[in-house]
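Quarterly update from the structural biology core.
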Amino acid sequence: MKMSILLKKRMIIASMTVTFLLSGCGNAATTNDASNTASSIEVEESGSASSTLTDTEKEKDVVTDTSADNSSEQKDSVASKASSDASSDNSSQAASDSKDTQSADSTKKSDKEKESDKTKEADKAKESDKTKESDKTKESDKSESTDKTQETSKSESTDKTQEASQKENPPKAEETAQPRQPEKVDYGRILFVGDSRTVDIFDAGESSFYGRNEGGVNVYCEDGGSFRFFSATVEGVGTDSFDTLVTWMGCNDRGYFGDYESYYNNLLSMGKNIVVCTVGPTGDQYLVDEYDQTYYVNSLMTAYNSSLVSWANAHGVKVIDLYSYLSGNSGYYIDPADGIHFQPQPTYGIWTYIFSQM
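Predicted structure, tokenized:
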């Protein structure tokens, strides 16, 4: 600003000098005018300078205000920037949170999708297993059905073959009518020895039979027969005449089995087969006299049987239990006339029972 005023003053002085020189050194008035002009210029310059100072101060104030404004604006700008930065940070944080939320949501969705995929895979696996089991069941059913069909076909074929064979070769009438019987033990030649109860089997009017042939069996029996009769009979016919000995003895032996035991052991040592029958019961209440009541009581029958069965079991000898048979529902009963024999006579059913048990 000062430079502009000085430059302007110099230009005016230069202009006046040139004018003075051109006018031929002019008059005093002119000089005064020039002096006044110069003074005026100085005053003007002074005022201008003062004004300039004032303007300078104003400019300083303006600058100061401007600076303050600028400072304020800068502060506002800083505050605004800070706010903007904060807002930006908040926006960034919000964006970050939003991204995190989105990421979490995405992860959850991914997990759910994975779980859904796993569930679908498991369901598919189950369906596949069910399908396989169903297929296996169907195959098994088909196999069973096929097997049954084959078996049915084989059975039908076999039946048809058998029918055809029967038509071509019909069975004989005898073979069809008679059922197959179980094989019996071959006892060979049989000798049967008994007492009066054996006589009653065949004929109640007789007192004895010596060498009776009953269905191939050689029978010896007599009333009152005891061990003495038994041993005499076996020795009389000879041990070479029989293979198997069957006896129904003991009722007249007063409950004593010892003599029979030793004799049976001797026959066994000779290789003979022995079949023994237990003594039938007696009726104590029917025994008619003192003799019978002494030697034919039922307790003597059971004592003999006990010894007989014990020996037979020890030697593997067959026992036919006539005591139990006649005490039960055999159809026979003890004769009340003597308490020893059985009715009704003849008692052939006893014979049939004996050989049915052999």
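Confidence is low (pLDDT under 50) at residues 23-101, 164-183.
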